[in-house]
Each structure stands twice: as C-alpha cells, then as structure tokens.
Amino acid sequence: MSNIDVTSVLLNEQDGRIPSVNFITLGCAKNEVDSADMQRRLVSAGFAIVDDAEDADAVIVNTCSFIQAAIEESIDVILEVAGLANIADGSSKLIVAGCMPARFGDDLESELNEASAFVPCSKEDDIVEVVQRTLGVNPAPFARVDVESGPAAAYVKISDGCNRFCSFCSIPYIRGRYHSFPYERIRASVEQCIAEGSVEITLIGQDTGCWGSDFEEKSTTAQLLSNLAEEFPDTWFRIMYVEPDGITDELLDAIAAHDNVCDYLDMPLQHANPELLKSMRRKGSAPEFLKLLERIRTRVPGITLRTTLITGFPGETEEAFDELMEFLEEADFDYVGVFPYSREEGTRAYDLPDQVEEELKVARAQEVRDLCDAVGSVHTADRIGKELDVLVLGAEEDGQLFGRAMCQAPDVDGVVYVDGGEVGEIVRVTIVDTLAYDMEGEIIHG
Ligand code: SF4
Question: MTTase N-terminal domain spans which residues (predicted)?
C-alpha cells in the first residue's frame, strides 16, 4: 500500500500540535507493506507521518534480519538514527520494529538502550498504543482521512509466517507460523490501493501457494486470484513467491483464464541438486523441476518465469554446482535472483559440516548470474517488434517516462521506457529496443 498523504494531517485541529512519526523501512516488500499498514493506523489515530527523521517526535526503524548483511544494515541505521540530535537529546524517541525485535527479543532490548520501544512483527497492529505510550500523547483521531493518488503499483500481503523451516532460513522464527489473511481483509487492502490510484497489485507473503489451506473452510490461491481478478477487472494482479508444490494445475488455469492476472510466476527453487535440497529441508531435483517447468509452460503458454537460488550452501561440491548450472541452461528462466549462502545463527544449517568458503560462494553466485543474465537478456531481446501493454509508473529526472509490462515484476525485472502516456495509464507499445532487462517501447497510436 502507498504511503499516506501527509497533508491529510492538516484535518486534525485538536490543539495545533500534531505529534509526528518518521518511518525508515529496510528489507523486502513485505516490510514496506507492514510500514504502510502502521502508517495508516497512526494517521487514523491522529499522528502525522513526516519525511525527515529530524522533524519527527518518533522515528520508527522497521528492520530486516533475514540474513547477516541485513542485520548489519539494520544495526547501522538504528545507530545512525540514535545519533541524530533530536534522539540523542531525548526530545524525540527511537522505536525499533519488525524482524530484529522478532528474532532477537530481550537480547536486543538489553543491548540497544538508545531505543525507547521495540515492536516485533507480531505486535505491529499495536503500533498506535506503543507510540502513544512512548511519546505520552493521545492525539484526537481525524474526522476524515484523505489520501491522494498513490503509486500506480502496490503490494498487498495475503499471508504471513511460514511452516516450512528450510534449514537456512530464519523467517519461521521471525514471522511465526503460517497464517493466511482472510479474503475480506485482502479485498479491503486491494480496494484501498485502487482508491489510491493503483492499477497493478502484487500479492505477496512468505509462501503464497498455500493460501487458504489453514482456513476452517479451506480455499486456494487459485480461488483467491480468480475472485480478485473477477471483482476488479481493470486491475492487474500478480502473485509472487509460490513454492513449487503450490503450483497446482488449478493455479495455472486461474492465471491462464484471466487477462488481468499476469502470466508470470516467481518460484523459489534454491538449488537443483537433490542431496543439497534435502539438506536444505526442501524437496525436488533437476528432472522434477524440469517436468514442473514443462507443465507450467504447457498450461500457460508464453508465461514469464523467475526463480531464486542459493550458491555455496554447506556441502555444495563442484559436481553439485555443475548440476545446478546444467539445470539452469535447460530451464531457460526469464529472470533469476541468486544469493551466496548466508550462515544464520539459530537455523539448522548453521552447524552443518562442509561450509563453503565465502569467496567461493560469491564466485559461484556470479557464475550463475552471468549465465542467467545471458539467457534472460536474450529473452528480453526476443520481444523486439512485439506489442505489449505497459503500465506507466513515473518519469525519471530528465522526464523520460517508464513503466512495466506484465512480464516484469516490481523492483527486480527491469522497466519499459515509453514515449507517452500518463502515470497510472496502460498504454499499448511496440518494443523497439532492449538493453539487458530494460526495454524501449513506442506507443501504438490509433
Ligand atoms: S519457504 Fe521460504 S520463508 Fe519458508 S522457511 Fe523456506 S525459505 Fe524461509
């Protein structure tokens, strides 16, 4: 969801002094959605959201602790904020939210005296109470909250937590057990985003393919997508992070059946060697994944496919890595995200034998990237001469408009530069050129 329009706070006429909050959001899109939810709650409760931490009564750092690098970044940012004059002299308060308090609990509280409050992910719904208590204020709620047009594309979370406990991953410890959000809640979020100007909604969660499996009256991700696509026919929907066993024929048919559901799937595979996958506490093998890809491409011809991989997981031998590379050549993905294995304390893989040298993990990740970039940029170049719908998202500093086609997920797959259209408009273009994953499109007039 987009940020709340700060001007709406002018509606609060309680005493002319509106307590203000600044947000710094780190990590993934799921954190951005959480921050937007917290902002909405705070604005409704009478707080202003401001852009500058030095102007705020409270600064909320929404942290990420997924991997070591994210933890280090979160700590750097927290310490930077703690050093601001208004925080250091106690006139403003620092609140640490999100994954770090969820993962490190009391240990974090005892080590970070600079922070006045800690809000783990599971307690973010209580943010208003926490900020009120921390600042000692209780502003009057707004009689009306106006929102201006938000960005043309938005994320909506459909679930939280995860039950899989992959051996390298800290998410289940941070976010807790998997729980699907009820349809009505998702629908309300989608409606809100559309009211704010969104034309594309990307549905996210940790394990989106099992949505509805935990309801008393069970449902499926396919049903969710179909219902949303039919209720909001002018909005594009895209689903991210579907684990391989969540890619059912029903889901593929729902994608194929709706013109406003992007023919796009992002499926984290992590590796292709069966022994390593087993050690990751995951399932699959190169032949099984190739069969899955064939099934997907048969049921949804022309679908765009993305995956995520880890290199240098403990026990990854030269042979296992070669198997991954061979698989990737055959799999022919459009986009691949690859990360060197990060050894996370508290996860089962932390103590596994045969840890791989840091340099080798990074070098292997680069090898995967080089191969997949070569494959992916050819896929992109193949679009030259083709017609695509592009959702115009904004303009660069020099005025150059850009947007995204259905084959491009937000933030990861490049953009299409276009020669006209308004932000929030879907324009039909012919692709005339490409550079790596970016494309250039000319509007088809008449
Ligand atoms: S499925 Fe994803 S979020 Fe869940 S444990 Fe595995 S890697 Fe982590």
Answer: 19-136
- The CATH architecture one would assign to domain 6-135 is 3-Layer(aba) Sandwich (3.40)
| Residue 264 bridge partners (DSSP) | 304
CA 368 to chain centre: 22
Closest CA to 343 of 308, 309, 310: 310
Cα 165 to Cα 99, 171, 206, 238, 280: the distances in Å are 16, 8, 11, 25, 9
CA-closest residue to ligand 1 atom 6 = 166
Cβ–Cβ under 8 Å, residues 343 and 68 = yes
Per-residue pLDDT of the chain (446 residues; tens, 9 = 90+): 333 333 333 333 344 578 899 999 998 888 888 898 898 888 878 888 999 999 999 999 999 888 888 899 999 999 999 999 999 999 999 999 999 998 888 888 888 888 999 999 888 889 999 999 999 887 766 543 333 345 899 999 999 999 999 999 999 988 889 999 999 999 999 999 999 899 999 999 999 999 999 999 999 999 999 999 999 999 999 999 999 999 999 999 999 999 999 999 999 999 999 999 999 999 999 999 999 999 999 999 999 999 999 999 999 999 999 999 999 999 999 999 999 999 988 999 999 999 999 999 999 999 999 999 999 999 999 999 999 999 999 999 899 999 999 999 998 999 999 999 999 999 999 999 999 999 999 999 86
- Looking at domain 387-443, its CATH class is mainly beta
Q: In this structure, which topology does domain 153-381 adopt according to CATH?
A: pyruvate-formate lyase- activating enzyme (3.80.30)
The ranges assigned to domains in the chain are: 6-135, 153-381, 387-443
Looking at ligand 1, which atom is closest to the CA of residue 172? 5
The residue to mutate among 166, 173, 174, 271, having the most atoms of ligand 1 within 8 angstroms of its beta carbon, is 166
Name the residue with the closest Cα to ligand 1, atom 8: 169
